[in-house]
Structure formats: C-alpha cells, structure tokens
C-alpha cells in the first residue's frame, strides 16, 4: 500500500491516479470525503496521530513539506516500518536562505526526512503548469491575462510528471537518497504561456504584465501573509531564485520526455472556457 498525502492537490491527486491506473494499492489521506480512485483515510498532516492511524500495511509514503510536528509524523512513519518516503519539496530549498520563510520550511522539511531513518527521495519541482489555472477567471470574462513577473522565464512542470517520478521512486529500486529537480522541456515567460493557451482555446489572447509593486500588492490583497509575499518578491523580482534551467531528470527517471506546456494546455483547455 502507498499512502499519498496532499491527495486532493495537483501533484498528490496526479499520483493517486497514476498509482491506481498502474493497479497499485493506494490510500489517500484526506480531511473530508472526496471522490478518488483510492482507499480514503481521514486525517490531517498537522496531526501526527491521524497520520499514524493511516499507516497500517503501508510500505511507501508520499509526504508534503511544511506541516506542523513533522518530526512526530516521521517518527510514526519509521515505527510503522515504512520502507520509503518521497518528499514533495521545491526549488526554493536550493536557495537555502533560512531568512526566507518559503525556503526555510522546505529546507527544514528535507532535513527532517533525511534524519528520519527511513529511506527517502526528495522531489524539487519547479513551478507547476497547473498554477496557470489561476488565469481561468480572467479568461472566462475576457481575452486579457494580467499577471506578475512578465520577464521571468520558468521551466514549468506538469504535475503528471511529478507523479510519474514519485511513482517510480516509490515502486522501483535505485532512488534512495536522491534529490530530483523536476522541470518541463522548455522555459517560458508568462506571455509565452498565454500564447500557447490561446492556441489551445482557439482565441487571440493578450498578456499584460504587472509592475513589481502591483504584483506585491496583489499578493497581499489576496490574503498572502506579508512574509510570504516578500519571499516570492525576492524570488522573482530580485532574481533570488532561477527556475529557467531545463533539467533532464524526468526523462532519466521515467524513460520518456517531460510533457510540454502545449500538452498541458490542450488537456486542461475546458477549465478556461
């Protein structure tokens, strides 16, 4: 049995489907009843006791970073005899600046997994292609997308590729102690992604970049804590994090090239209509 935490999220949900389609027994840790092709276990990653209650018969765990009492959760995982943990971290861990709260929780989560005594693999995906879904409201009401960091190119990655690497790490030998940076096949600026999405929708779309000040204000107005808004401002406005490099990891692990943004856009076009 594989236990998937974050099972209703983009990466966790993709992993649940990937494992189920492969005929692997999968258990999803969820906070409420949902429709998933998995056995459901009610729990919360901020509550180590609830995670411990979901570990019966589990040989592998897909774990999200940054939750409370993670050391206790990992102790429960070790006691249950789990054979492998795959941690969903992020490229922010590479910045390794503990003054940055986003980097801090990823760095600390990785350190806890390494110290757990359970064989581990760490995934550090770049920005998810599915983050593009935040444009859906704008495109349902018009043909203009306004968003932040217009000059920043990112090699965004499809959650299905994150899931494929996670599944390989959990089901195959040879992934213990590996840190996998995950990207798509091409670095794209926001305007490039808008153009691809327009082609998928059969519409002429236009991109308008926010200023750095507007981007910061939008994050704060959207309810993001100031420390986190400052972290992302540092990453992308001040260039403290570079997600433009294309890495070969997805193909090395899975044996196939990573999915393109064109493929993601075609598969998810209905969300923007």
Task: Describe the protein's architecture and organization.
This protein is an alpha/beta fold and 273 residues long. Helix content is 40%, strand content 15%. It is built from twelve helices and nine strands. The chain has a seven-stranded parallel sheet with strand order 3-2-1-4-5-6-8, sandwiched between helices. It has a two-stranded parallel sheet with strand order 7-9. Helix 1 (10-21) crosses helix 7, helix 8 crosses helix 12 (261-267) and helix 9 (212-221) packs antiparallel against helix 10 (226-236). The N and C termini lie far apart (38 Å).
Features:
273 residues, alpha/beta, seven-stranded parallel β-sheet, two-stranded parallel sheet, 12 helices, globular
Give the overall silhouette.
globular
Low-confidence stretches: none
Please bin the fraction of helical residues.
40-55%
What does the average pLDDT come to? 97
Q: Spell out the helices and strands N to C.
A: EHEEHEHEHHEHEHEHEHHHH
What percentage of amino acids are in beta strands?
A: 15-25%
Number of helices: 12
Please tell me how large the radius of gyration is. 19 Å
* Distance between the first and last residues' Cα: 38 Å
Overall structural class, as computed from helix and strand content, comes to alpha/beta
Spatial strand order of the main sheet: 3-2-1-4-5-6-8
Largest β-sheet summary: 7 strands, parallel
What is the β-strand count?
9
């Amino acid at each position: 049995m594989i236990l998937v935490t974050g099972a209703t999220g983009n990466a966790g949900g993709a992993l649940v489907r990937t494992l189920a389609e492969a005929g692997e027994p999968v258990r999803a840790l969820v906070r409420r009843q949902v429709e998933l092709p998995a056995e459901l276990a009610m729990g919360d990653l901020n509550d180590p006791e609830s995670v411990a209650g979901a570990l019966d018969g589990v040989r592998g765990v897909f774990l999200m970073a940054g939750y409370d009492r993670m050391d206790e959760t990992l102790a429960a995982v070790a006691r249950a005899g789990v054979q492998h943990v795959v941690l969903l971290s992020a490229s922010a861990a590479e910045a390794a600046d503990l003054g940055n709260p986003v980097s801090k929780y990823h760095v600390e989560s990785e350190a806890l997994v390494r110290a757990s005594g359970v064989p581990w693999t760490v995934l550090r995906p770049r920005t998810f292609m599915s983050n593009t879904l935040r444009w859906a409201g704008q495109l349902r009401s018009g043909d203009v997308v306004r968003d932040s960091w217009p000059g920043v190119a990112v090699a965004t990655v499809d959650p299905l590729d994150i899931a494929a690497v996670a599944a390989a790490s959990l089901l195959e030998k040879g992934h213990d102690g590996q840190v996998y940076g995950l990207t798509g096949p091409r670095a794209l600026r926001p305007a490039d992604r808008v153009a691809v999405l327009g082609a998928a929708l059969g519409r002429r779309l236009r991109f308008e970049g926010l200023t750095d000040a507007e981007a910061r204000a939008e994050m704060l107005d959207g309810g993001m804590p100031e420390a986190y808004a400052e972290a992302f401002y540092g990453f992308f406005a001040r260039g403290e994090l570079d997600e433009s490099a294309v890495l070969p990891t997805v193909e090395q692990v899975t044996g196939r090239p990573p999915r393109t943004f064109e493929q993601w856009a075609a598969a998810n076009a209905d969300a923007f209509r």
